[in-house]
């Protein structure tokens, strides 16, 4: 008899992301800390199962409950309420007398995360205008290319669009995020795309036919990878074909460091249309100006999820000015510099 499966809800994922950040864990850390109960308790699961959990895919109930317990969350509050709870799960894993309430996120240092994309909504700052413009473009029937230097916040913006798409896209589309750094070649890419909609891996006309009944928002991070060995213009041409038209199967949001016309010149060399020309409207991410940087610092120093202390940390005006100048307007660099400054205050108090 197959094991029952569970899927996390949108709200459940948000709670899990906050709990993960509050513990200072990566997803790999979480995978290593999961304990599977049974006659012979087992510690640790694969990172792939954790990724499925956070992308709202079905996973075995035993894994689902184990992940929630590791995060100190009540799995009943995290699961998609539209799914049927197995009596087996209720009897063996749910004990009201030892339920753990979802903890409020309390961090000693508010300047987190220092690396990688921001995937907890409450941690995102200063990109409201860009998010609004991206959805205006998508809702007008066009796709979007987010262009900006490294460490400027492209991945964090993609994550915000992924999270807000169910409420902001008109008409609605199912969002799917794919970091191309995790894709080996174009065959691997087609496999990932088809897995999103639960169809057998295919390409060309058969893929178009298979996707005719689907409406997807495909968010591609590190799209430069499509210019490496293992990728040809055929896959980019296929994406163009799938994204053309008001009612096309795909709407795209791609992130790159360079304008797409410059990044993919091979089509133009062959007197063909550039694969993304006329399909993706570019939205350029720029550095934060001094005003936004200052607001960011003040908002983090006053964050309501900081651990209560007798004397709150306050940066001096000179410190704020120096932090802004050293960061050059790069959000990630500013975060790291502020983290170090805040940590020095804490160390001085010990």
What does this structure look like?
This protein is an alpha/beta fold and 350 residues long. It has helices at 10-23, 27-33, 47-54, 61-70, 75-78, 87-93, 128-139, 154-168, 186-197, 204-211, 233-243, 260-263, 266-269, 290-301, 317-327, 331-349; strands spanning 5-6, 35-36, 42-43, 59-60, 143-147, 174-179, 216-221, 250-256, 280-284. The strands form three sheets. A five-stranded parallel β-sheet has the order 6-7-8-5-9, sandwiched between helices. A two-stranded antiparallel ribbon has the order 1-4. Helix 7 (128-139) crosses helix 8, helix 14 (290-301) crosses helix 15 (317-327) and helix 15 (317-327) runs antiparallel to helix 16. Residues 84-104 have low confidence and may be disordered.
In which range does the helix fraction lie? Answer: 40-55%
Share of β-strand residues: 5-15%
**What structural class should be given to the helix and strand makeup?**
alpha/beta
Give the terminus-to-terminus CA distance: 57 Å
Low-confidence stretches: 84-104
Record keyword descriptors for this entry.
single chain, 350 residues, alpha/beta, two-stranded antiparallel sheet, globular
């Amino acid at each position: 008899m197959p094991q029952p499966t569970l899927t996390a809800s949108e709200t459940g994922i948000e709670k899990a992301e906050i709990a993960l950040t509050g513990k200072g864990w990566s997803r790999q850390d979480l995978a290593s800390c999961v304990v599977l109960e049974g006659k012979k308790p087992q510690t640790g699961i694969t990172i792939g199962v954790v990724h499925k959990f956070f992308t709202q895919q079905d996973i075995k109930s035993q894994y689902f409950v184990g992940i929630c317990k590791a995060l100190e969350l009540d799995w009943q509050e995290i699961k998609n309420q539209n799914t049927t709870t197995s009596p087996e799960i209720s009897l063996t894993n749910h004990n009201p007398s030892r339920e753990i309430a979802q903890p409020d996120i309390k961090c000693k240092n508010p300047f987190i995360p220092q690396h990688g994309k921001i995937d907890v909504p409450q941690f995102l700052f200063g990109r409201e205008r860009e998010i609004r413009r991206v959805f205006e473009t998508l809702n007008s029937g066009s796709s979007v290319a987010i262009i900006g230097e490294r460490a400027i916040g492209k991945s964090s913006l993609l994550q915000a669009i992924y999270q807000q798409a169910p409420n902001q896209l008109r008409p609605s589309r199912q969002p799917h995020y794919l970091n191309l750094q995790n894709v080996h070649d174009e065959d691997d890419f087609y496999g990932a795309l088809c897995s999103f909609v639960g169809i057998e891996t295919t390409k060309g006309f058969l893929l178009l036919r298979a996707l005719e009944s689907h409406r997807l928002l495909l968010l591609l991070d590190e799209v430069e990878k499509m210019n490496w060995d293992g990728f040809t213009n055929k896959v980019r041409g296929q994406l163009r074909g799938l994204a053309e038209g008001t009612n096309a199967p795909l709407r795209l949001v791609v992130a790159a460091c360079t304008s797409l016309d410059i990044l993919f010149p091979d089509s133009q060399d062959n007197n063909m249309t550039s694969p993304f020309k006329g399909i993706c409207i570019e939205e350029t991410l720029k550095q934060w100006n001094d005003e936004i940087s200052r607001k960011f610092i003040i908002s983090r120093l006053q964050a309501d999820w900081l651990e209560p202390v007798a004397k709150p940390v306050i940066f001096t005006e000179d410190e704020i000015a120096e932090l802004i100048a050293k960061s050059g307007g790069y959000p990630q660099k500013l975060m790291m510099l502020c983290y170090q400054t805040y940590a020095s205050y804490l160390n001085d108090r010990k």
